[in-house]
Amino acid sequence: MSDGYAGYRSQLVEALQLKGIHDMAVLRAVATVPRHRFVPGTLEHRSYEDVALPIGAGQTISQPYVQARSCELLKLTGRERVLEIGTGSGYQTALLAMLAESVFSIERVPELARRAHEMLRELNFANVTVMHADGTLGWKPNAPYDGIVVAAASPEIPGPLVAQLKPGGRLVIPVGTREEQVLTLVVKDADGPGFEATPITDVRFVPLLGEFGFALPES
Ligand code: SAH
User: Fold this and answer.
1) How far apart are CA 42 and CA 147, in angstroms?
2) pTM for this one?
């Protein structure tokens, strides 16, 4: 993509490699997706730093390292059907669109869902569908999924999401308190409804608000 940012994207790819991201498809996606289009104009100059940035509505675009790590943990080959909870800016949705066959993404803030949908369409990501809803319930009509990635902090692993995974399917989710969480990899059993959960790394996400997440703040 000749948009004047290719050099910055290469530097970000190198930084992610140094931090331990090795999946070539993930690195290629980071080298390709124009992250500066997913952040507010006033922060565009910081869009290729490995940091989280505010995107409006009290939400953030997550740190590239955590987004890349989450994608890597799904072990995508290009043939999968993936569900994302917490579209936010739509940047990770774009990474997933390059790594999987189809991506369904749910965002609870209507304005963010609309903006992400428009940007993904402008950038010609045709294999993505964005929906405005409570993602803790999953998206049953399109289930089961090979992979699910949750980009907001949850007090526990939401049952509906595990139920909507294929046997052997992978779910990546930050689990903990509103203040601090552990990025957790959940692999569903091949022959039953059970799963194995593995802690990966400490993270800080905005809360997952909904029926199987944290309670909504009183208004
Ligand atoms: N991957 C996004 C992360 C955005 S932050 C990005 O990098 O831009 C997490 C997002 O999760 C926020 O936009 C927030 O509104 C959304 N969210 C929180 N609870 C949700 C829920 N129950 N369902 C869907 N989205 C939710």
Assistant:
1) 34
2) 0.97
Residue 176 vs residues 12, 35, 156, 208: alpha-carbon distances, Å: 28, 28, 7, 11
Sorted by where each starts, the structural domains of the chain and their CATH numbers stand as 55-203 (3.40.50.150)
* Inter-helix orientation angle 24-32/6-18, to 10°: 150
Tell me which residue has its CA closest to atom 10 in ligand 1: 86
Q: What pLDDT, on a 0 to 100 scale, did the predictor assign at position 105?
A: 98
CA-nearest of 3, 81, 84, 108 to 47 is 3
Question: Is 62 tagged catalytic?
Answer: yes
Residues of the chain with pLDDT under 70: 1, 218-219
Residue of 62, 70, 105, 154 marked active site: 62
